[in-house]
Amino acid sequence: MTETKGALDGIMVLDLTRILAGPFCTQTLGDLGADVIKIERPGGGDDTRRFGPPFLKDDDGNDTIESAYFMGANRNKRSVAIDISKPEGQALIRQIAEKTDVVVENFKLGNLARYGLGYDDLKEINPGLVYCSITGFGQTGPYAERPGYDPLIQAMGGIMSVTGAPEGEPMKAGVPIADIMAGMYATVAICAALRSREVNGEGQYIDIGMLDTQAAWLSIQAMNYLIGGENPARLGNGHPNIVPYQVFETADGHIMLTIGNDAQFRKFCEFAECVELADDERFATNGGRVKNREPLIEAMKPVLAAKPSQVWLTELERLTIGCGPINTVEQVFADPHVQDRGMVIKMPHEALGGREIPLVASPLRLSETPVTYRHSPPVLGSDTEDVLRDVLDLDDEVLSNLKEDKII
Length: 408
What we know:
With 408 residues, the chain is an alpha/beta fold. It has helices at 21-31, 68-71, 87-99, 111-114, 119-125, 150-156, 177-200, 210-216, 219-228, 262-272, 275-279, 286-291, 293-305, 309-318, 329-334, 336-340, 384-392, 396-404; strands at residues 12-16, 35-40, 55-57, 63-67, 77-81, 102-105, 130-135, 204-209, 245-249, 254-258, 322-325, 344-348, 356-360. A six-stranded parallel beta sheet has the order 5-2-1-6-7-8, sandwiched between helices. A three-stranded antiparallel beta sheet has the order 9-10-11, with helices on one face. β9 and β10 form a beta hairpin. α1 (21-31) crosses α7. It starts with 11 loop residues before the first strand and ends with a helix.
């Protein structure tokens, strides 16, 4: 049987990223088969190694120095500790870059160029290089030199203005979604650039700005403004263009109800014994329901509150009307469908002597080039000597001198 290979098998990625947007991108590339070499500061490493608790616990139940945060974005990487502030460290990075396919970095504007590690520097020694910079505000524009932080980008990028209760304060998402989406857009751009290089033999530079990507994934809310000319309002758990499409309180909890068209609305009203709502000309069409959102929702509240959640969940599913529970994170990973889809994997971790740790699986499912899980999130610098031997063919004497000089 032929061994299955990842979509990016044979691609080497030089990972000069930290925190989340960049590491999320490079982890995805690694899941797809790329050999990702993560460069970290000797002695400190990626800042997220200290973003906790929680941390992995040793056999005695004590915290290690490996954070859950770091575990979430650094699978399928090899950690190489090099001090790039020193000329000798910069020389090592240039030697690795000469042999690599992709560089991903998220330093502040111009920082790597000061070390001779910018795109213009590295493309001279590797013309086929795909070089991706992820910053808060991109490489140009009046904000280009500002640092980018996820909540800052959520605030400036509009998503907080449409998230939260109408009478409450603007609300950020419960996960660092601006970072994650910037990493996803970067991944797409890198894969496209690699395909372009396959066709024309040329590398290229990719400029990913988090504010740009945030504006892009405003999606329907952006278009509601651009076409409608009015600022979208915060609607809590309501949908700006579809009604009813929100959370409702039941007799013993809450459910999410998603009625997507007029036929479903009538079917719901017939089951819920409130057919007069479907017959009301104000509510007969989705456009009417959006315009008359408040009176409809007020009329529906006592209807939903009259029965327990499980009745709605069971019966509306039977009628193929969108309805679901509002799960905690614990309930998500206990869900039989999530478990059947294998959304938790286990990998041995060096810091625990090979004991397995749980990780969130990749959701990418490719029939011929599936994702693979080859490396657990690495201990800081655990692969330094192996990588420098394999990639740069350095011998023991040179490695010893580099350690003595605190370059690695």
